[in-house]
User: Fold these one by one.
Assistant:
Number 1:
Amino acid sequence: MTEARSDPLTSEIAVEQEHVDLVYARLGEATRSAQEVAQAGRSLHRSDRESYVREEDGTRLYERDVFAFQAAKRLAVLDAEHEGLVFGRLDRTDGEVRYVGRIGVRDEDYEPLVIDWRAPAAEPFYRATPTQPMQVVRRRVLRCQGPKVVGIEDDLLDSEHADGELVVIGEGALMAALSRARGHQMRDIVATIQSEQDEAIRAPYQGFTLISGGPGTGKTVVGLHRTAYLLYSNRRRFESGGVLVVGPSRVFLNYIERVLPSLGEESVTLRSMGSVPSDVVATTGERADDAATAAVKGSLRMLPVLKRLVTEPFADQPVELRVVVQGQVLVVRSGQLAAIRRDVLAHHKLNAGREAAEKALLTALWRSRPSEVDMERDEFDELVTGLASFTMFTYAWWPSVSAPTALRRLADPALARRLAQGPLSAAEADLLSAGLADLDTLGPTVADGALLDELVNLLGPVPPPPQETETSLFLDGDSDVSEVVTTADRMSTPREVDPFDLPHRTYAHVLVDEAQDTTPMQWRMLRRRGASASWTIVGDTAQSSWPDAEEAERALREIIGTAPVRRFRMSTNYRSPAEVFDLASRVVVEAYPEADLPTAVRSTGVEPLLAVAADVRTGVVEQVRALLGEVEGTVGVVCPPSRRDQAEADLAAASLEGAERIAVVTSLESKGLEYDGVLVVTPDDVVAESPGGVRSLYVSLTRPTQRLVTLDEGRPGRWRPAGA
Ligand SMILES: Nc1ncnc2c1ncn2[C@@H]1O[C@H](COP(=O)(O)OP(=O)(O)OP(=O)(O)O)[C@@H](O)[C@H]1O
């Protein structure tokens, strides 16, 4: 007892535990009572179908139900994460004490026990500083595991108003949070959001909010917390309209996917850039193209090529229409067919044009009839459209074309060269066709996604299939119809059934992370999903993998148009130790002097290790073994694409202790991620094999939270800055 009193941390924890217990007890009560009300409501409906719950009961039922449902949902997530519902406390100059948490909880008298972190009353928790204390004397961060308080970190903001009894513990929550080892998933920062981050999080939703800043400045977490904030402050708009969060890769999404649920938000669609078009095409991809091919596929110069592609007739299409009417042969010849095609495509998308094409064919046939054909126009049309030869012709001559079927055609080098003449050089056209050779076997690459999306837009949705019996009549066997949409295509594009429907899903808010990598074609794809949305765009041009930064900028400016723009710059690197970031920034400024360099706040006293090995494969295993011993958390092995699989196999074969903490990634895949220890394998190859060159190496070098090791082959690499 005396011992507990003499230890200020223990007694302060006990005080906070009391309040946290109160909150959990209240939540338990509310959950039970909501279940009872819901149960009562259900039996009311069951016992008397004609009667309704009285309005006010209904509202209460709704409120409690929602409250308990939300609370139960959030608690399930929090328990799994071992993080607390209540994480902050403010002691104010007027003596008021406010607790801040992931959701707001009130007691029976409607007095707040905890304030939702997104509520205006919680703002001083994030904005108050010693120079502008906003009536806050002490800011306290509680560290909880589930409902148990396990730690406290205080910031004294206004010592003048602190009375003698106020206990201040720890050196501040931020440093404590930053020095903790990382797991394989990103954690929320709700307890330690910094003032400049808070401003971006709470900015109004309208127009475009652009958040920039160097590596590790919290752009991603800020974007995600902003999403949670927008849902809280404008729930009706954003929950019904939908929020889309786009990240660079599937690996990245796995890394961030817990952040929003831990903040109580689950109604958000997360998509990797490769899977954005999954609402309109069945197969999407995460494969990367090589640097040069990606540059061609991502460029706006692809647009005229795709436009030509959709109007280009298939090689095996019939060249002449012949039907027999009243014993007379009527013919529409190839020149006339071409004119009809041009005319219909001037007014219709290909997949919406068959009906108009049919009408034009009927008119052409009608005009060509000899005088022996003796019938009215209506009768003539009915007769001709009932002829198998006519229907078979129209399906073969005007097939419905799916986007993958169209894109696949560009794998033919001769066709690619012909259609690309002008916008692309012959060498670029060859890269394009070679880059589509694996489309059928391996599926699309990330860059193909935007091309497929553009094609869906140009072709229009594939119309519904004809009746089953007709399908087998016209689709089986005949080589003329080999390019029409296959049954597999049809089944795989279930959304493309209503020709009048907008094929793309649209959203009320779009968050684009790592936006510096978004190619112009991808911006077009994203814009279709957010035509009337507000946007948050997060990025750092110094980390761009896109070779033509100016073209990407132009594409973004075009999306923004005249909409209001708000800009925020994050200035502090919370991830990398100063020693690591110093090396990384020297590397990037040599090639990219305008890089926006943040200030690293933490120092570990350990310089990066620049190692050289005669044999890279054994070197990798040795260095990873050492790193596993030096850091508690994750170890990332960042490789050039050509060495990734080998490194993974060698590390698996070595069966190192702690192997579950290792992740092997390419420099491109390491975008947005972080590890406690990082080994960058052959940095010169990272530069040579990545579209962004030195900028991609900069990304790799800025992934560690603790230790950085680089490994050169044979001798010190050319990438090293002078003096390193
Ligand atoms: N206020 C904060 N409190 C605690 N940790 C923070 C804070 N801000 C950022 N961090 C941590 O810093 C690290 C980097 O954050 P994040 O990945 O969002 O940065 P980024 O700017 O997106 O980086 P990059 O551009 O390199 O991808 C994360 O571990 C994040 O949790």
Number 2:
Amino acid sequence: MARSTSQLYLDGVSVSFDGFKAINDLSLTIDPGEMRAIIGPNGAGKTTMMDIITGKTRPDAGEVFFNGVIDLTGEDEASIAELGIGRKFQKPTVFESHTVWDNLELSLKAPRGPFATLFHVITGAEKKRIEELLELIRLGEKRDELAANLSHGQKQWLEIGMLLAQDPKLLLVDEPAAGMTDAETAETAELLKEIAKDHSVVVVEHDMDFVRSLGVKVTVLHEGSVLAEGSLDHVSADERVVEVYLGR
Ligand SMILES: Nc1ncnc2c1ncn2[C@@H]1O[C@H](COP(=O)(O)OP(=O)(O)OP(=O)(O)O)[C@@H](O)[C@H]1O
């Protein structure tokens, strides 16, 4: 697909650590409003790819564009977040000693330095947005609960809600189902599908049942580049994918 109409565009991206090519001529395009699952063995370069997109790691070569025109290799982490790329790390990082509601309120995108945050009076529109987020992340009943008292899965959902409060265009989600109960995993797939109705989403995941339930195009990474791409059935039928990953 053309760069100009893409949400995220990587072309010929490489990065080495001490001479080892963690990302090797990687090319990948995500459409606006697309959800994509990224799978691949340990060390395939999934985390490094996310680090490059979010400005944590600079590529040695290649192009990385957001919204078709914004060269991310020229931006730092803070400005990339500001541009509308949200990243959810594997481990939830919510404010444990605050309530669910306050976690969301503190995350809302608003023009606020330290003083604005301290003296900010929440508007009706902001309250409505928090209500919407609470419903989406299945925590309406837990709004007054301290985040510390949530289950692992609920903390993951809260953090996803906190990212959404920033109004990102693209959400990068690293192994959301890890450590979740089966019921939470199934609910997380539904949640991501709802989010993908109006965001682009990139999900890295090892749980193949979870990936199947997302029902989206899958990219298999291996040794820093794309080994296969297509539906889960398509890539699962690829002998090379079975050999390096699925057959293990
Ligand atoms: N900062 C770094 N310095 C040196 N080597 C690194 C660095 N970051 C990543 N690597 C190496 O690059 C390779 C790719 O790692 P990466 O973490 O991106 O893989 P991954 O696909 O995310 O794996 P996993 O599924 O285990 O999370 C690995 O061999 C890793 O050891």
Number 3:
Amino acid sequence: MKLEVRNLSKTYRTAGRELKVLRNINFSLKEGEWLTVIGRSGSGKTTLLKCIAGLLSVDEGSIIRYDHWSIQDGKEEELQAFRRENLGFIYQDYQLFDQFRCELNVMLPLLPFEKKENVREKARSLLEKVHLSDRLEHFPHQLSGGEKQRVAIARALINDPKLLICDEPTGNLDERSRDEIIELLLKLNNEGTSIIFVTHDRDLMKLGQQTLQLKESMISNYLQ
Ligand SMILES: Nc1ncnc2c1ncn2[C@@H]1O[C@H](COP(=O)(O)OP(=O)(O)OP(=O)(O)O)[C@@H](O)[C@H]1O
């Protein structure tokens, strides 16, 4: 799946203020490529990821196209189906459900849509892939940060995403856990999953075929 982003701009309008966060961002991501996104805190990295996933509206004239489908033209139900079928998300703070065991956390995204036993089987094989077969019954609070992130990766893979969107996935991890996560992501990328990867980590900025640096070009205006 190819992603094309053209003239992507995003302005937040809140409480009588206008904050232009993204200005004319352009890039293309071919199937199986890895794009690393860097930029200072507040430069709009998370905003960019949300726009790409269709979780935020974008300014007029912005184009975000997957193969031949532009997400700005999709209805909400189409967008949800698109995300469910094509995208996976990984966050810095894992975003696991503390009340559920690891296996169930991994199963959750597909549970409403497929047979429970099939989803369980898939969750187990993914937890095996991230080397956590012996943690199926653990709750998130019983895991290390690196282990939590590996559960989160397994969950992000439950729908076989074509694009994995990673928002500082190693930001909370020590060097060893970080390296394990990167190794896992590189393996997925080698197997054909496209990756968009946000990082502050200097050691990781050169990963992938492309690096996009967001500048702090924010213009903040008071609306008339
Ligand atoms: N929903 C919102 N409404 C208004 N302003 C917002 C909203 N979300 C983010 N912002 C502002 O947009 C700017 C960019 O935020 P964003 O979270 O995209 O930055 P970031 O580069 O991901 O930062 P960090 O590296 O700290 O995570 C910030 O100044 C933030 O305050």
